[in-house]
Amino acid sequence: MAIAIGLTIVFGMLRLVNFAHGAFYAIGAYVGLVIVKQLGLPLPVGLIVAPLAVAAFAVLLDRVVLVRFYDKDPTAQILVTFGIALVVEETLRLIFGGTTQTYPLPAALSGSLNLGFTTYPTYRIVFAAGIVLLVVAVWLFIQRTDFGLVVRAGIRDRTMVQLLGGNVRLASTVIFALGAGLAGLVGAGASPIYSVDPNTGFSFLVPSFVVVVIGGLGSFWGAVLGGLLVGELQSVTTIVQPAASDVIIYVAMALVLLVRPSGLLGESEVIRG
Amino acid sequence: MMRDLRFYLLVALGLVAFPFALHLIKGYPGLATQILIVGIAAVGFNLLLGYAGLLSYGQAMFYGVGSYVSLLTVSRFFPAHPNFWLALILAVALVTVMASLIGALTVRLYGIYFALLTLAFAQMFFFIVFQWRDLTHGDDGLQGITAPPLPLGFTSIDLTTALPAANLGPLGNLADIHYWYVFAAIVLLLVLVFVRTLTTSQFGEVLRAIRENEERSTFVGFDPARYKLAAFVIAGALTGLSGALKGLYETSTSVETLNIETSGSFVIYTVLGGVHTLLGPLVGTGLVMYLQNVISGVTDSWRLIEGLVFVAIVIFLPGGLLGPLRDRSAARRRLAATVRTAPPSPTAPTASTGGAP
Questions:
Q1: CB contact, 8 Å: B121 with chain A?
Q2: Do B301 and A90 make contact, defined as CB atoms within 8 angstroms?
Q3: Does a structural domain hold residue B314?
Q4: DSSP strand E in chain B: where?
Q5: Does residue B307 belong to any structural domain of this protein?
Q6: Cβ <8 Å between B121 and A250
């Protein structure tokens, strides 16, 4: 869900379709891996360094490559970010090999917690809580700070904001880096649970597109709602008809696209993308 | 008309020379056939991406379903009378129906929404094929299904037969080439004639007009959705044909033919070689598949190279490798046209000064 939020703020704020978003997740996961497994540092260090590293990479990418694509049509954006995703995936494969890896949880978080009605792995609870906090923080940042104001105004009327002295260019780079950093953070945080291999980027990208499309491309709370719906849909189907649990989310996505292409909470003006 | 004939003759010559050229640069026998077969799908996909401007991220569903249907026709549906043509026709027919239904739902969407909806359908078919074990054997795929000989009315040819032996020195031996290559080349040539006829006709003009400005083409009186649907169905059918040939040629298929990477590879081939050009997708297919097979023997970073080249092309050469070539020949044609129709020079300045106050 948090990955989807990264994806949706980048699309919503910058009107940039990012197929490389999964790659940010994967980089974050591998940075976490190096820090925890190879350097033997505690997980929180990884959780701080990974998003920063990914954000730095995103800034570089934004300034060098994507700058040329903000004004282009979505097809060109899909193509270039898809290419970047390929390059990242292969670079990761070259450095870390193609095998699936994971790293151990800190001892304090590896147990289970008794919640009264059910027990649940501690780390997952902490992780979920962290994501909720993060979601709120990002929302506050965009809605309540002056900087967020520049970003949101920049979407409406770029030229006017620039005339008034707002730095739209800087704002979009920061937003892009923020979206990427989020993905990196989630990548580092999730890989003790899900493990990581070079394909991870793509395998997370597609479900997060499903989430974003269902919620509404560019809609912040849409991504939250979409994430919850998709998770719920998948677990209910797993109980009722396990074979269909993989198909069901795509069926849902297709239905949403057909009936209401802008998603459940999306603004209809984005349909022409 | 003469220009057309000359063009097709050149392409045919190229197809004859291709396996020998490939041998010179150490491509294994059989690679040429694979390239032509996949090339059919890329040429079809370009009708969608290059001419109609629709980026489908789900072409793999047509490719994969085509390969499954052709093999199942031989092994499951009509095991008593396996027939090559029937396998091809059933596969293409089913994929055409599939593409018509999916196209009817998808072509009204734009840009990212179209790409994601086609992706969603492709994922659905991926999981359906994956789960339908009775028919598809799940992740084992279909293996070792020998294609029946190709009936030609008066006779029938086993396409795995080699051409007569004849040593051609550095170009290899004629017997390295099987009838499969000849068949694939003929099918590809027919596909090229078909697609070129389409794109140079009014249909192609309208598609281009829609790509450039959909609203305006509506005002002129064309229904964009109908044209886009036609392009979608034709591209789907050609991709299904390509998949069916792939299945029969390789005697096997797997669920990987339906995954996102397969869809992505059609995008890569077409963009690398050159959208808007007839032969670009073929060049892209040949280049990538050759590099994939030859360079992967030398270094395992070929896919990284592929990705880097792809990004570089998208950024610096959006028209693809054949793009500059096309631009030049288009410029030459324009120049020739202006020279031919240029008005006598004295009238030109009068015309332009006439309007000035």
A1: yes
A2: yes
A3: no
A4: 150-151, 156-157
A5: no
A6: yes
